[in-house]
Task: inverse folding
């Protein structure tokens, strides 16, 4: 059951990501991105991270992507024009990607024993466990992150503010 | 008792069918209730010709919408134009899946009065609602009509802004139950009837009013029905829709109303628990009564909220758009945050730490 769900949503995620790159209209790309994010949420759920899955749907698919589509609608962005692409990308792109992939694969395979293993559907991290962790052991990073986000908000307000 | 997968699937399927049928019937009759009540508020009768007291009106309306010609305007962006009403209705029907309707009664190890009992039920309701915005946003954009687009933009901005106040207002309740599971949240309120409900005994009435207002805005209902303000935008995001596609938006709106009422009942008014607590437990006995009485209380409370929805719609004028945004961001959000601070402070002061 878990394995079937993993394959279905993994495939959906990949298909969405490919569609995101191949579609020519920005709104279709944005919608594919929503599909990718929602399938990622299901994958988190399969790994037992309930809260993370819900937050992924609420924050990313529900709020941030709404703003993306909002901007696309307001700008009334048309179809993108395809160019031939830069020569550099053709020459260096594929070998570069292949090299990166093989490097990652090599690292994963050679250090296989050192990684902790998580099996799909093995355990569930409840929200209360997660929050206890966040507010005791990880309190400092948590608060620092929130300050970081606050700075970003203040920066956005400062940039958008009209001078009187 | 171990439940086999087949039994689980069969019972779940039966539950899904029953709940969806009841929900759609409830949607149809909420429309009738609204027309009747708004009629009374405006000093007229409302529908009264079809069947006794106009009770068959929803069936006739449904048949009419089914049989109407499905127009496809030429300038629309077709895939999204067709997809949008499906997203809207799909999300509206999905969120009912985590709502528990009655007491914890199991048959072959499967809960009877809830489709899915999940740990993060409350978050799932929020998540599905937040996906439902796309139905409205995409319908407005794909219609290729300025009124639709404006309606959709208003709707998505409104829903995203009020979702914040909505989420913050729920935190007090979640803190009291220390769980996101809707069944746990109700069980915390079930001990002494009325006085242990979150609204009265839990001192969450501030949160309740924030929730109520944010929920009205989330479902695009009056006085926050700016996305479909007919005097400015013809019909807003569904201007270009006809026949069943229009009906799907209509059904989605009422299904959302029902879901929001269910959540308000569960979170603030004790769900299926009786307002008298265990005072009259012995009066009506028997397994059947014990199973059905909670459902009666639940339905009665949900009906009360629907009545309130319609009452508000019949009596309050619409907000102006800047008032709407100001109200959401400058009033509801700060009050919701203050509610969280005060609630957690009181809990820390008076409740034993476990």
Result:
């Amino acid at each position: 059951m878990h394995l079937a769900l993993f394959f279905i949503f993994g495939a959906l995620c990949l298909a969405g990501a490919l569609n995101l790159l191949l579609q020519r209209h920005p709104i279709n790309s944005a919608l594919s991105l929503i599909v990718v994010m929602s399938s990622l949420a299901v994958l988190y759920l399969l790994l037992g991270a309930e809260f993370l899955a819900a937050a992924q749907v609420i924050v990313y698919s529900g709020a941030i992507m709404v703003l993306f589509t909002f901007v696309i609608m307001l700008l009334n962005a048309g179809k993108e024009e395809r160019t031939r692409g830069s020569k550099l990308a053709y020459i260096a792109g594929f070998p570069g990607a292949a090299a990166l992939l093989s490097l990652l694969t090599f690292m994963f395979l050679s250090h296989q024993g050192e990684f902790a293993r998580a099996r799909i559907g093995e355990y569930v991290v409840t929200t209360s466990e997660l929050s206890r962790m966040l507010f005791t052991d990880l309190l400092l990073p948590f608060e620092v992150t929130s300050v970081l986000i606050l700075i970003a908000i203040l920066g956005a307000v400062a940039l958008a503010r009209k001078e009187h | 008792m171990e439940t086999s997968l087949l039994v689980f699937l069969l019972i779940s399927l039966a539950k899904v069918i029953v709940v969806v049928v009841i929900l759609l019937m409830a949607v149809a009759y909420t429309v009738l209730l609204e027309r009747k009540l708004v009629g009374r508020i405006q000093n007229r009768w409302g529908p009264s010709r079809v069947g006794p007291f106009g009770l068959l009106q929803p069936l006739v309306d449904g048949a009419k919408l089914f049989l109407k010609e499905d127009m496809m305007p030429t300038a629309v962006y077709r895939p999204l134009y067709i997809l949008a009403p499906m997203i809207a209705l799909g999300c509206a029907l999905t969120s009912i899946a985590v709502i528990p309707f009655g007491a914890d009664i199991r048959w072959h190890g499967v809960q009877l009065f809830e489709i899915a009992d999940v740990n993060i039920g409350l978050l799932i309701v929020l998540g599905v609602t937040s996906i439902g915005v796309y139905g409205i946003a995409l319908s407005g954009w794909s219609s290729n009509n300025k009124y639709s687009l404006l309606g959709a933009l208003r709707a998505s901005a409104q829903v995203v802004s009020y979702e914040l106040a909505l989420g913050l207002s729920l935190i007090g309740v979640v803190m009291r139950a220390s769980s996101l599971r809707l069944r746990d949240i109700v069980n915390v309120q079930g001990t002494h009837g009325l006085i242990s409900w979150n609204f009265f005994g839990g001192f969450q009435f501030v949160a309740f009013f924030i929730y109520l207002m944010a929920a009205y805005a989330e479902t695009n209902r009056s006085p926050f029905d700016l996305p479909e303000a007919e005097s400015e935008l013809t019909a807003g995001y569904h201007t270009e829709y006809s026949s069943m596609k229009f009906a799907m938006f209509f059904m989605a709106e009422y299904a959302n109303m029902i879901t929001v009422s269910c959540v308000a009942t569960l979170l603030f008014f004790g769900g299926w628990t009786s307002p008298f607590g265990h005072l009259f437990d012995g009066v009506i006995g028997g397994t059947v009564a014990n199973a059905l009485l909670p459902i009666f209380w639940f339905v009665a409370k949900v009906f009360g909220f629907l009545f309130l929805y319609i009452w508000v719609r019949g009596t309050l004028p619409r907000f102006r758009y800047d008032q709407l945004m100001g109200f959401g961001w400058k009033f509801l959000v700060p009050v919701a945050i203050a509610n969280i601070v005060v609630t957690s402070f009181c809990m820390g002061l008076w409740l034993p730490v476990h």
About this structure: Chain A is about 75% helix and 0% strand.
